[in-house]
Amino acid sequence: MTVRNGKRWNHNIHYHPRILRAVPDGAQRALDVGCGEGMLARELRQAVPHVTGIDLDALSIDQAREYPDDVGYILGDFLTHPFESASFDVIASVATLHHMDAAAGLARMRDLLCPGGVLAIVGLARSAMPDDLPRDLAGVVAGTFHRATKGHWEHPSPTVWPPPVTYPQMRALAAEILPGSEYRRHLLLRYSIIWRKPRD
Q1: Reported confidence tier of residue 12, pLDDT bands at 50, 70, 90
Q2: What are the residues whose beta carbons fall under 8 Å from the beta carbon of 71, sequence distance 6 or more?
Q3: Residue 160 gets which letter from DSSP?
Q4: Whole-angstrom Cα distance, residue 200 to residue 195?
Q5: Taking phi first (over 0 means left), then psi (-120 to 50 degrees means alpha), and beta for anything else, what does residue 73 get?
Q6: Residue 89: domain span
Q7: What secondary structure, in 3-state letters, does 57-89 show?
Q8: Is residue 72 part of a domain?
Q9: Does a structural domain hold residue 134?
Q10: What is the DSSP-derived secondary structure letter of residue 154?
Q11: 21, 41, 112, 187: least surrounded by Cβ within 10 Å?
Q12: Any idea what the CATH number is for the domain that residue 119 is in?
């Protein structure tokens, strides 16, 4: 593991600012789904008074709880944990949906979000070859540059590869479950979904 200038970088962290920019003004409660060792949850806490992180990996949650912050961490399954419906102003998730049934995960996030709240996701999907080859090669080149200039932090959480859902399938799921959501595919082999839950 190489981290330069005391800063962490990897493909997921690179897109944290997209999540943080989506936090709505006045948000009081945030949920980080698949929080790992809590880096995004701690960043969310700088903007939101009450932040909860949930993850199935015990080692990651133990590491998250070692930090001196007031984020609440839950060791458990996001899909089944008894959260109250419509109880969060912002729900964030980075590199987590491919660890679960994506449709079930999106629906659960939708249901836990308060009216007017924002869902912000950065995820991984499976490339479709040969169509995605040029885009993927560009992403590899860009990722190599970032690694060379910023170092690379290897997260301690379990990995799932390859992702079970393709990029077009994820776009279709977002359109179906989160009508009006903004889906974007990014250079560094990630996609993002931003959705504001209607108030009516």
Answers
A1: confident
A2: 38, 41, 42, 45, 51, 52, 53, 64
A3: -
A4: 15
A5: beta
A6: 11-126+161-196
A7: CHHHHHHHHCCCCCCEEEECCCCCCCCCCCCEE
A8: yes
A9: no
A10: -
A11: 21
A12: 3.40.50.150
